[in-house]
Specification:
- The chain is mostly beta strands and 347 residues long.
- It is 12% helix and 37% strand.
- It contains six helices and 19 strands.
- The strands form four sheets. It has a seven-stranded mixed sheet with strand order 3-2-5-9-10-1-4, with no helix packed on it. The protein has a five-stranded mixed sheet with strand order 8-14-12-17-18, with no helix packed on it.
- The longest helix has 20 residues.
- The radius of gyration is 28 Å and the shape is elongated.
Length: 347
């Protein structure tokens, strides 16, 4: 009997050892694969399609260095895991990255984008191919000419700085293993330096603002391709020694494949591109200028420098009627601004 008990004890001990040293799927609470995501950032404010701004930049002329226009590093990042066996899952991380759990084995695709935005609206995020970013709406009552050229086109705020990355080539990771995963975040929003250069009458300008019409309304996060729909981007201007200036962010031109996302660029479609300048004079009068800038946009589909020269405000337009007085401030500028979401989009 004693001998039998010893054999039973040995058998139980062996069974317990085997159970503790292996991982059963129904009992293991850490049955995962881990990737150490390391984020790097491509700080570009424009893409070169023939203008060579980076090599010919004149800091004295522009009043800043080329690198001063590079976007800043975002604060946080959202990663969405798409799987054929489960609903999309969000993971939040710092701008440096972190260790992530990829879950059960199977096909996975990962989409990354920065989440510290104010005027960006993300939509259709449950669908990897349809996930896109657009901007909030903004209206202005004094754009009769622009709106006549672009009927039924939404006007919007400039988009926030936006980066994204996508990968469907995940490294082979075994259960309970971890592997490095470098991810390069690339910009989907670019900057136009818009210069309104005055020839005469700048001293009579009290306030200025503008509009850039014909730019893409949204961008697809997976491919970096802009939507076919266009928008009118509204913005304020600063007075300078030469005239007025604005740094305007945009998704770029509509329907444009991005070679930096693995697609070759194609010829620009025959679309109108219009630049507006609206000034309020010291006598209270509002004057509007509109310019066809298709020739400048053609080689600058994603960021660059747009120049308008020879702007004149004649003295008779700036004359003040005797006995009248004006106190021109931003409050009476007449801005009609609505921060709304695009139609059919949920924030």
């Amino acid at each position: 009997m004693i001998k039998l008990s010893k054999m039973l004890a040995v058998t139980v001990a062996v069974a317990m050892t085997a159970t503790l040293s292996s991982c059963r799927k129904d009992l293991c609470y850490n049955h995962f694969r881990t990737a150490s995501v390391a984020l790097s950032w491509e700080h570009e404010w424009e893409r070169d399609y023939g203008m060579a701004h980076a090599t010919t930049w004149d800091a004295a002329f522009h009043g800043r260095e080329y690198g001063d226009l590079r976007p800043t590093l975002p604060e946080g990042v959202t990663m969405i895991t798409y799987s054929s066996e489960a609903n999309p899952r969000e993971t939040f991380m710092s701008n440096a990255g972190q260790d992530i759990n990829l879950g059960e084995p199977g096909e996975h695709s990962l989409l990354f984008y920065n989440n510290d935005t104010e005027y960006i609206v993300f939509s259709d995020m449950a669908s990897l191919t349809e996930a896109r970013a657009s901007t909030t709406s903004r209206s202005r009552s004094t754009l009769a000419y622009i709106t006549s050229l672009y009927p039924e086109v939404r006007s919007s705020n400039p988009p926030d700085i936006l980066y994204a990355a996508y990968t469907d080539e995940l490294p082979a990771i075994g259960l309970h293993e971890s592997t490095p995963m470098p991810v390069k975040m690339q910009p989907l929003v670019y900057t136009y330096v818009i210069r309104y250069e005055f020839e005469h009458g700048l001293n009579n300008v009290a306030l200025a603002r503008g509009a850039l019409a014909g730019m893409a309304e949204s961008v697809y996060l997976r491919t970096g391709v802009t939507s076919e729909e266009s928008a009118i981007i509204l913005y304020d201007c600063d007075k300078t020694a030469y005239g007025c200036e604005a740094l305007v962010r945009s998704f770029g031109v509509p329907g444009f494949p991005d070679e930096y996302y693995g697609r070759a660029p194609m010829a620009r479609a025959d679309r109108p591109y219009t630049l507006n300048l609206e000034v309020r004079l010291t006598n209270g009068k509002i004057i509007e200028f509109n310019y066809d800038i298709a020739d400048q946009i053609e080689k600058q589909p994603r960021g660059g420098v747009i120049r308008i020269t020879g702007i004149r405000i004649e003295d008779e337009e700036s004359a003040i009627t005797p006995g009248s007085a004006f106190d021109v401030t931003v409050d009476d500028w007449g801005e009609h601004e609505d921060i709304d979401l695009p139609v059919g989009v949920k924030k």
